[in-house]
Specification:
InterPro entries: Class-I_Pyr_Nuc-Dis_Oxidored, FAD/NAD-bd_sf, FAD/NAD-binding_dom, FAD/NAD-linked_Rdtase_dimer_sf, Lipoamide_DH, Pyr_nuc-diS_OxRdtase, Pyr_nucl-diS_OxRdtase_dimer, Pyr_OxRdtase_I_AS. Its EC number is 1.8.1.4. There is one protein chain. The protein has 13 helices and 24 strands. By secondary structure, the protein is an alpha/beta fold. The longest helix is centred in the first third of the chain and has 25 residues, at 84-108.
Length: 461
């Protein structure tokens, strides 16, 4: 580490994950001097322990399923085995290439990277490795960790996503506590790798933050794949021995498996880093900010998973850019949380942006909302891929589209246009008049808007 005692920077960023490194890169681009403090590796959870490694596993899982089902396309393939050492090597190579590229970017912008655990010791100062780093502005970006439940200890056969990503074997059976994004993605991977999977979700639906129509379709698809799930009953306890884990629910049901994956969400990393001592307001560990992401203390801002809201890498990335531009005086437009796209990269994929039907009715009234579902059965490319699903549009009556919700293979790649439609407040007629390439799944968005505009073609409306 370079000797930075006594050096004052324009901006000190505490945490080098998606939000922190984005803030550092954009600030440096705007001519600011930046110190980036990171206790582990630049890139944070997303690159090293989250988004990238899990999606690498999901791609390997997709290849496994393709090998199993090739005969239905006239390609007679078989699946020999899953070599987890080989899968993990592939995963590590993907991470390594991206990490090397990110390090090069940070170095090229002349950002001072300081390795070590940083603590906020004054509104303009972070202490790390016994040195005090001062900045005209400080950005808190300390990220998140895999949560557990009170009394549920991680260890042995009880793991979080952190340990699950390092497994060099495929469990014969696994219980997943939590049916949100993380739990559903691991369920999809392990089922494709040949495991017997059971999800336990205390809420009434899997992917419970999505539109209810998507959740129900997702449950049908998982049931068809042979993924088991138990909904609406809370977890009560687990024991483990040489034979596996033994999970009990509050209604008395019990489940046995090789492993229990605890996937009940992520908590903010805000303990023992000096935030509260410097007057930063915390609520259940999350840093409270205004819409400009300012903490109300000095020139201290916060971004990413420590700020209440969607815990998504691209949200943190966008917030990092926003704060850098805010500090530089560019007055960027505030980020609208509902306009941030959301994707669950399972089989099938779930992708959405904007308001669910239920939320739209809360905002605009029960009589002020229109919806439409376009089945992918009418989409040529979806038929070629052999996928099922639909696109659901939520519209303010006689107004713009306020929500786009999709389920099916590869729909995560369609959410970009959905984001433009919602954030630019497009009317169905605006999108219906656009020409979508044929045959693509993207064309299903065009067909859905044609139908909502009152002129359905490949739809029985």
């Amino acid at each position: 580490m370079a000797d930075t005692n006594g050096t004052a920077f324009d901006i000190v960023v505490l945490g080098g994950g998606s939000g922190g490194y984005a803030a550092a890169l954009r600030a440096a681009q705007l001519g600011k001097t930046v110190a980036l403090i990171e206790a582990d590796k630049v890139g944070g959870t997303c690159l090293h322990y989250g988004c990238i490694p899990t999606k690498a596993l999901l791609h390997a899982a997709e290849l496994a399923d393709d090998a199993r089902h090739g005969a239905q396309f006239g390609v007679h393939t078989t699946l020999d085995r899953i070599d987890m050492n080989g899968v993990n090597e592939y995963k590590a190579n993907v991470i390594g290439r991206l990490y090397k590229g990110l390090q090069g970017l940070v170095k090229s912008r002349k950002i001072t990277v300081i390795d070590g655990f940083g603590k906020l010791v004054a509104p303009d100062t972070v202490e790390v490795n016994g040195q005090r780093i001062t900045g005209g502005h400080v950005i808190l970006a300390t990220g998140s960790y895999a949560r557990s439940l009170p009394g549920l200890e991680i260890g042995g056969r009880v793991v979080t996503s952190d340990q699950a990503l390092q497994l060099d074997w495929v469990p014969k059976s696994v219980i997943i506590l939590g049916g949100g994004v993380i739990g559903s993605e691991f369920a999809s991977v392990w089922k494709s790798f040949g495991a017997d999977v059971t999800i336990i979700e205390a809420l009434p639906h899997l992917v419970p933050n999505e539109d209810e129509a998507l959740s129900k379709a997702f449950e049908r698809a998982f049931r068809k794949r042979g993924i088991n799930f138990n909904l609406g009953v809370r977890f009560s306890g687990v024991t483990q021995d040489d034979n596996g884990v033994h999970v009990s629910l509050e209604d008395g049901k019990t489940f046995d498996a090789d492993l229990l994956l605890v996937a009940v969400g992520r908590g903010p990393r805000t303990s023992d880093v000096g935030f509260e001592e410097q007057g930063v307001t915390l609520d259940r560990g999350f840093v409270i900010t205004d819409e400009r992401l300012h903490t109300g203390v000095g020139n201290v801002y916060a971004v990413g998973d420590i700020v209440p809201g969607l815990q998504l890498a691209h949200r943190g990335f966008a917030q990092g850019i926003f704060v850098a531009e805010e500090i530089a005086g560019l007055k960027p437009a505030a980020i609208v949380e509902s306009g941030i796209p959301r994707v669950t990269y399972s089989d099938p994929e779930v992708a959405s942006v904007g308001l669910t039907e239920a939320r739209a009715k809360e905002v605009h009234g029960a009589d002020g909302v229109e919806t439409l579902e376009y089945n992918l059965g009418g989409n040529g490319k979806s038929q070629i891929l052999g996928t099922q699903g639909f696109i659901k549009l939520v519209r303010q009556k006689d107004g713009p589209v306020v929500g786009v919700h999709m389920i099916g293979a590869r729909v995560g790649e369609l959410i970009g246009e959905g984001q433009l439609i919602v954030n630019w407040e497009a009317y169905p007629e605006d999108v219906a008049s656009l020409v979508h390439a044929h045959p693509t799944q993207n064309e299903a968005l065009g067909e859905a808007h044609l139908a909502l505009a009152g002129k359905p073609l490949h739809a029985h409306n």
